[in-house]
Amino acid sequence: MQSYTEENYLKTIYHLAERTTNVQTNAIAEQMQTKPASVTDMIKKLADKGLVDYIKYQGVTLTETGKNTAIDIVRKHRLWEVFLVDKLNFKWDEVHDVAEELEHIRSVELIERLDEFLGFPKADPHGDPIPDKNGRFAKTQFIKLIELKVGDSGTITGVSQHSSAFLKHLEKLGLTLGKQIQVSDVTDFDGSVEIRLSDKQVNISREVAKHILISSNGKN
Amino acid sequence: MQSYTEENYLKTIYHLAERTTNVQTNAIAEQMQTKPASVTDMIKKLADKGLVDYIKYQGVTLTETGKNTAIDIVRKHRLWEVFLVDKLNFKWDEVHDVAEELEHIRSVELIERLDEFLGFPKADPHGDPIPDKNGRFAKTQFIKLIELKVGDSGTITGVSQHSSAFLKHLEKLGLTLGKQIQVSDVTDFDGSVEIRLSDKQVNISREVAKHILISSNGKN
DNA sequence: TTAAATTTTTAGGTAAATCTAAAAATTTTT
DNA sequence: AAAAATTTTTAGATTTACCTAAAAATTTAA
Hints:
Chains A, B: Pfam families: Fe_dep_repr_C, Fe_dep_repress, FeoA. Two copies of one chain form a homodimer. By secondary structure, chain A is α+β, with helices and mostly antiparallel strands. Chain A is built from eight helices and eight strands; from the N terminus they run αααββαααββαβββαβ. In chain A, strands 3-8-4-5-6-7 form a six-stranded antiparallel β-sheet. In chain A, strands 1-2 form a two-stranded antiparallel ribbon.
C-alpha cells in the first residue's frame, strides 16, 4: 500500500515515461512542483519498495509492479472524470483537480461499481483511454489535426492539452469531442487551419491544431 | 484549511460531544485508535487554530468554527453514503469505510452537485440526518424501539449502531428503513421484543431493540 | 579534452503526526 | 482528607515528506 505522495510520484513517472524511456529527476521535480533533492529521496524509497528501477544519475523507469500501480491510478482518475462530467454536469475543463483527489480513494469495489454505473466507458472527457480493471487499454488510432491535409476529414476524439484555458477555447469554438470536421484551408502565412463543421467554419492557430486529436473516418 | 487528520479529530470530537459537553482526551484517543499523548498534542494544535476551546485537564469543546467544519465533514460523509447505496448498489453495512475516505475530498462544487444529483436527501442509509449546505439539520423525532409499549406501532427510520454485524442482522430479519412495525409482545424473561411486520413476526433481543429508531405514526 | 554548465546527489534540518515512559493533575475510594 | 486509581500532560524519539546549501557526476561547449 502506497501513500498518496508515492502514488503521485508513480503517476508522474508513468506519464513522463510516455515520452522518454529514462525519466529524469529534474523532470519529475518540475512536474510535481517540488525540488530535485526531494525527488531523489522519494526515488530511493520507491526503488527500495521495488516500484522503480533506479541507477544513480541515470533516471528511473517503472517496474512491472510500479507500472501497474500507476495505471490503476490513471484508471481511477479517468473514471472519476467521466462521473463528474456525465453525472454531475461538470465541464471538461473543471474536472482535473477534483479527480486528482478522488483518484486516491482506495476501494477496488468502489471503482468496479463506478465503472459499471458509468457503463464501462472507454475514454474520459478529454478522449484519453480508460484502462480496464486488468490495466489493458483499448487500442486507439489518433492523428493530430495539424497533420491533416486540406480536404481531409474526421472526428474529434481527443485533446493532448488539458489546461482549462485551452479547453474553454475549444468549447467556445464548438470543437468538442465527437464533432465531425473537415480541413478546408491551411494558411501559408502562419500555418493556421480553417475547419468546416456541420454548421459553421472556424479558424484555429497551428498551436491549437497540434493538440486536437482526430480519428479519421476513411479518406485520402 | 485542515489536514485530513485534523478533520478526523474535529469529526470525532463532534460526535463525542453529542453525549457529553466536555470531551475527554481518553475518549478521543479510544475513538481514534491512538494514544492519549497524541491527542493532547493535536488538541493544542486545534486550540491554536481556534477550532476548539481547551483547558488543560478539562477536556475540549468545539468552537463555532470547529463545529461548522465538523458538520461539513458529517454532511459529506452522509451524502457519499447515499451515493454509494442509491447509485452504486452498496449495502448499508458496506459504506462506512469508503465514505470515511470520500468525506475528505475538498470541493464545495462537488458536494453541491452531488447533493443535487442525489435529490437533496434528508437522511443517509442509516437514517442519520444530512445537514444542508448551511449546516442545518432537519428536525427529526425518533424514539427507541425499546421504549415502545405492546401495541405501539411506527416506522423504522434509523439505527444508532453502525457496525456491519448489527446491520447485517437487521437486514436478515427484514428490519430495514421504512418498514412499518408493531410491537406485539415483550418477554418478561429477557426483555426481548416481538415485532409484527406486514408479512411476518420477528423476535429481537433487548440489545437490538435499543438501537432501532422509530418514528411513531400517532398511537398509544 | 579541458572548462563551463547542467543535473543529480548528499548532508543536515524542519514540520506533522505519531509513539513510549515518566511526571503531574484530578478523581475516587477508603 | 489521605491514599489509591485514573486521567492527562510533558519530555524526548521516530517517520514521512519536504527543504537549502554544497558536493559530485554528467553533459555540453569552447
